[in-house]
Specification:
Layout lengths: L3 E4 L2 E4 L4 E7 L8 E7 L6 E7 L4 E3 L7 E6 L4 E6 L8 E8 L14 E2 L3 E6 L1
Parallel strand pairs: 2-11
Antiparallel strand pairs: 1-3, 3-8, 4-5, 4-9, 5-6, 7-8, 9-10, 9-11
């Protein structure tokens, strides 16, 4: 059972930056995908960014050019660098992992391991 623990959330003013981290318990899968999702109050959860073991990445249109997803395999850690933050980026951010399809997709249907989330609040 893979466990995911997010950190790095917080409060920031519009235009600021935050870097989220997701520490994954050790896993031995060669093929995988990991992603970031977010859910704002009263809204459905949406995909933000994802990457797979081939190095492919995928981003939601709303964050392209502002957010960057990356990983440190040695540390089993996934990152999300968020720049030029906007109030509409305010949400609970979740890390997710998939070892079956291993496709860089922002569709949550492909992911079956989830973290508890970390809150990001952007004030205007």
């Amino acid at each position: 059972q893979v466990q995911l623990v997010e950190s790095g959330g917080g409060s920031v003013q519009a235009g600021g930056s935050l870097k989220l981290s997701c520490a994954a318990s050790e896993f031995t899968y060669n093929n995988f995908a990991m992603g970031w999702f977010r859910q704002a109050p009263g809204k459905e959860r949406e995909g933000v960014a994802a990457l797979d073991s081939d190095g492919s990445t995928s981003y939601a249109d709303s964050v392209k050019g502002r957010f960057t997803i990356s990983q440190d395999n040695a540390k089993n850690t996934l990152y999300l660098q968020m720049n030029s933050l906007k109030p509409e980026d305010t949400a609970m951010y979740y890390c997710a992992a998939d070892f079956l399809h291993a496709i860089a997709t922002t569709s949550e249907a492909f992911f079956n391991y989830w973290g508890q989330g970390t809150q990001v609040t952007v004030s205007s």
